[in-house]
């Protein structure tokens, strides 16, 4: 269990499970604290220039990829998924009217040196429902 900057009784994040079935309980912790907890528990690496200060409270369950995408809601990011790890590049927090959607692709599908394609909102919705083409 990791405790946040406030009182340990009020600010905490707990991560349980395996990569295909993760459960996070977050109570008033920064996004950085949640990502640090995922990094400690699983082979998730992240990079960012952002302070990742937005606070998170809630329960998140699902695969590591899906939970990571959910906690990064409101951010533009790229996720590279390899068989034994996940690399996340958190780019920036997007504005409420910004339509950019994060893309998650297997590491072997991204040619070296090329930017990852961005999904449309409709494609992202199909991907989330497991209906990606």
Distance between the termini: 38 Å
Residue windows where pLDDT falls under 50 for at least 5 positions? 1-8
Radius of gyration: 15 Å
State the domain count. Answer: 1
Order of helices and strands: EEEHEEHEEEH
The count of β-strands is: 8
Determine the mean pLDDT. 78
Order of strands, widest sheet: 1-2-3-5
User: What class do helices, strands and sheet pairing give?
Assistant: alpha/beta
Shape: globular
Helix content: 10-25%
Q: Largest sheet, described in full?
A: 4 strands, antiparallel
By DSSP (H or I, 4+ residues per run), the number of helices equals 3
The proportion of strand residues reads: 35-45%
Question: Can you offer a commentary on this structure?
Answer:
This protein has 133 residues and is α/β, with parallel strands linked by helices. The chain has one domain (2-128). The protein has helices spanning 31-41, 64-71, 121-128, and strands at residues 2-3, 12-18, 21-30, 44-48, 55-62, 75-82, 85-93, 103-106. A hairpin with a 2-residue loop joins strand 2 (12-18) and strand 3 (21-30). The longest helix is centred in the first third of the chain and has 11 residues, at 31-41. 22% of the residues are buried.
